[in-house]
Design brief:
Blueprint (H helix, E strand, L loop, with lengths): L4 E2 L6 E2 L2 E4 L2 E4 H8 L6 H18 L1
Antiparallel strand pairs: 1-2, 3-4
The structure holds zinc ion.
């Protein structure tokens, strides 16, 4: 039985990916972040989502 994790970026359940703190980011979104420039709006969106998760963890 494969263990799947819900990606915090795309909400897809995937096996391949990384954990940042306790948040799972699938390999697809991870590469998207890596290849997105800081100026890109998408990058800000990723950071915003990750901060939301972090805030939830602290609550
Ligand atoms: Zn994803």
């Amino acid at each position: 039985m494969e263990e799947l994790h819900s990606c915090i970026i795309c909400n897809e359940r995937r096996k391949e990916g990384i954990f940042i703190l306790y948040s799972f980011i699938c390999s697809t979104c991870e590469s998207a972040i890596v290849h997105t420039s800081v100026e890109d709006q998408a990058y800000a969106e990723y950071i915003r989502k990750m901060r939301q998760i972090t805030l939830q963890m602290d609550a």
